[in-house]
Design a protein that fits this description.
With 172 residues, this protein is α/β, with parallel strands linked by helices. It has one domain: P-loop containing nucleotide triphosphate hydrolases (Rossmann fold). Helices cover 25% and strands 22% of the residues. The chain contains four helices and six strands. It has a six-stranded mixed sheet, with helices on both faces. The protein is globular, with a radius of gyration of 15 Å. The N terminus is likely disordered. The structure holds guanosine-3'-monophosphate-5'-diphosphate and magnesium ion. The site of guanosine-3'-monophosphate-5'-diphosphate has 19 residues, from helix 1.
């Protein structure tokens, strides 16, 4: 019998609204670019890239009004994927605060972090280094973190990112 999905490591996909979380989840699960609308509540699915380590991926609505609900998803979280719109420099301080807030929750102590700098298909997207600086990633010394560029609409960088997430979970 296969592993039941409740036994899968749970991965939370978080980030500001419009970062591309729902597009990314649909793309990695189905290989298709879907038309999204603002997520009310959550989207969830099981990803099994190498047929031996399934992950349950949760995409939690990111609008301001949803943020108080974030804490309910933290208990079982084995890795956090934080998605940012790398073309939106103006909202980086907001993203930085949101990330810091999430990671300050004691239930996420030591939980590995994968930052996805999304929308790299667009011109004027920030480099990994810029995003990393703006999010203050170097300040997170008490957990493993990685940052990677991706394009959720084009499906670029996603498989590598989630294979890395698997490795981070195994090491943690
Ligand atoms: P969210 O779930 O984080 O709130 P969505 O974000 O997945 O709903 O995406 C918000 C908007 O960003 C959508 O456009 C979506 O198509 C776009 N988007 C997501 N990922 C990418 C990407 O990698 N590249 C580009 N160019 N656009 C992306 P609309 O126009 O529907 O608001
Ligand atoms: Mg969404």
């Amino acid at each position: 019998m296969g592993q039941s999905s409740s036994a899968c490591p749970q991965v939370l996909i978080m980030g500001l609204d419009s970062a591309g979380k729902s597009t990314l989840l649909a793309q990695i699960l189905t290989g298709q670019t879907v038309k999204t609308s603002p997520t009310v509540g959550f989207n969830v699915g099981t990803l099994d890239l190498n047929k031996q380590s399934p992950l349950t991926l949760w995409d939690i609505g990111g609008q301001q009004s949803m943020r108080p609900n974030w804490k309910y998803y933290l208990d079982e979280c084995k890795a956090l994927v934080f998605v940012v719109d790398s073309t939106d420099a103006a909202r980086m301080p907001e993203a930085q605060k949101a990330l810091k807030g999430i990671l300050s929750d004691e239930r996420l102590q030591g939980v590995p972090l994968m930052v996805l700098a999304n929308k790299k298909d667009l011109p004027h997207s920030m480099t990994i280094r810029e995003v990393s600086n703006k999010l203050n990633l170097n300040s997170y010394t008490d957990r493993e973190w990685e940052i990677q560029a991706c394009s959720a609409t084009q499906g670029l960088g996603l498989q590598q990112a989630f294979l890395k997430v698997n490795k981070l979970i195994k090491r943690s």
